[in-house]
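Exercise 7b. Backbone tokens:
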């Protein structure tokens, strides 16, 4: 398994795409010259050369895009176009905004405040770092990040359950997408707990899949906004609930999953064992 994983191609995050597009747009705005690619140092310290597309320069702004490359990770945003438009601003500093296809946060508990565009802290930091040198040319800079297909793509992500509406999030802590990243999936599950806790609820329903979700809604009358589909990661989610101080957990699902957990198997995927007869 490890030898196969080592052969998988890594990709780069939507945050890296936004960082590269923003830097390239700033360079084009100040030099008046088109760029075909741009070099960026991402959050983990790696230096990448990112290919650009849809370049445009006008007297008022410069705009370009990066096509998201998730490598061998089955990421729904693979191939999405991440666009940055940079223009001078009258207000001092760097203002980062979301455009079409970027979601807005509507519920507390996420790293970004309610009402803000869902551009996470690390991508924001990297964009500011790239644009800061260009404040020597302008009093202020405004950058708008957009994703033309973002609203459609967001319906296939965790965003609706996290209270992010209208588009995708610009994400990334290292700048790199690890193929088939278990940690990224678990982080998304943990974020759902943060949102539920921030809503004031001390109760969570964990379900492996559709059977448990249906039972919670129809038999127990549990509302959808505190149900988390945890898949096979039962033990991880129990531990996260304990860490976050969630006092009451309802665990419901198919009997085949429940008896595995009763037998002490806290990842219920078949590769971790069976144990149902025992």
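Sequence design result:
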């Amino acid at each position: 398994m490890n030898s196969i994983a080592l052969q998988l191609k890594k990709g780069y995050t939507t945050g890296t795409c936004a960082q590269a597009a923003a830097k390239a747009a700033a360079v084009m705005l100040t030099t008046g010259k088109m760029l075909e690619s741009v070099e960026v140092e991402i959050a983990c310290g790696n230096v990448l050369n990112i290919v650009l597309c849809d370049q445009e320069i006008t007297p008022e702004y410069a705009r370009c895009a990066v096509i998201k490359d998730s490598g061998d990770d089955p990421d729904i945003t693979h191939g999405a176009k991440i666009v940055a438009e940079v223009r001078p601003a009258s207000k001092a500093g760097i203002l980062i905004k979301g455009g079409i296809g970027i979601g807005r946060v509507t519920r507390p508990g996420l790293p970004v405040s309610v009402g803000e565009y869902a551009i996470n802290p690390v991508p924001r930091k990297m964009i500011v770092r790239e644009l800061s040198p260009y404040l020597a040319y302008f009093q202020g800079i405004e950058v708008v990040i957009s994703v033309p297909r973002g609203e459609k793509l967001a319906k296939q992500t965790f965003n609706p359950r996290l209270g992010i509406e209208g588009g995708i999030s610009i994400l990334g802590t290292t700048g790199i997408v690890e193929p088939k990243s278990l940690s990224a999936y678990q982080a998304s599950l943990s974020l759902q707990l943060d949102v539920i806790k921030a809503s004031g609820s001390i109760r969570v329903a964990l379900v492996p899949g559709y059977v448990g979700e249906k039972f919670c809604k129809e038999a127990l009358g549990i509302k959808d906004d505190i149900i988390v589909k945890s898949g096979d990661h039962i033990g991880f989610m129990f531990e996260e609930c304990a860490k976050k101080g969630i006092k009451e957990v309802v665990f419901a699902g198919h009997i085949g999953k429940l008896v595995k957990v009763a037998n002490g198997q806290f990842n219920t995927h078949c590769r971790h064992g069976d144990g149902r007869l025992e």
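Instructor comment: The two ends are 28 Å apart (CA to CA). The chain has a mean pLDDT of 89.
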